[in-house]
Design a protein that fits this description.
This protein is α+β, with helices and mostly antiparallel strands. The protein contains 1 helix and 12 strands, in the order H-E-E-E-E-E-E-E-E-E-E-E-E. The protein has one domain: Sandwich (Jelly Rolls). Strand 3 and strand 4 form a beta hairpin. The protein is globular, with a radius of gyration of 18 Å. Bound molecules: calcium ion. Calcium ion binds next to strand 4 and strand 12.
């Protein structure tokens, strides 16, 4: 049986250990020797996020960390409503800490084809936006992963204001769109 004092202590300690585990997990995800050498910043493996609904983790030797996350190969007609607005049930959520400031976010993404190549993205309480991958016919290497920047229309790369504790959510917009990892790139003042 716990005394009132130990109960009072248990909660902060459990929060501390939970935070420690998350931090260790984050560092471990970003320090794997199989990460490409160019991923030198603050990296987040997509497979460390929380996938719900249409998002699934996929094991792949071609992916950083050996896995990535993608939306299911639905019939386009079945997900037509996803082209109108995000569905909260089909989401991939990242929670992370950062030094507050302005950042761009690099992404390694893949698509089923050049016609299924976007997500909705939402950071903290900011409005969601459509992130349509940068691609051209000359760069039609899908479904392999390509290096890109999170962007909103001509706002490329989009500048994000991060706070200490952030929630970044990807929502399904098109079928088969994949995310391997993210890199936070701080902008110098
Ligand atoms: Ca990955």
């Amino acid at each position: 049986m716990q005394t009132q004092q130990t109960k009072a202590l248990a909660k902060p300690l459990s929060i501390f250990y939970f935070g420690l585990i998350l931090s260790l997990g984050f560092l471990a995800a970003c320090s794997k020797s199989d990460l490409p050498a160019y991923c030198t910043g603050l990296c987040i493996e997509a497979e460390t996020g929380l996938p719900l609904g249409a998002f699934i983790r996929v094991q792949s030797a071609e992916a950083s960390g050996g896995a990535f996350v993608r939306s299911l190969y639905h019939n386009e007609a079945d997900i037509h409503n996803h082209m109108q607005a995000p569905d909260q049930k089909d989401s991939l959520t990242f929670e992370f800490e950062a030094e507050p400031g302005k950042y761009t976010i690099k992404a390694w993404v893949s698509a089923k084809d050049l016609a299924s190549d976007s997500f909705y993205v939402k950071l903290n309480s900011q409005p969601y936006f459509v992130y349509s991958f940068n691609n051209t016919a000359a760069n039609s290497v899908f479904p392999e992963f390509v290096e890109d920047n999170l962007r909103e229309a001509s706002d490329d790369p989009k500048v994000f204001t991060l706070v200490k504790r952030n929630t970044l959510i990807f929502y399904m917009r098109e079928t088969g769109a994949g995310l391997d990892r993210l890199e936070l790139i701080p902008l110098n003042p």
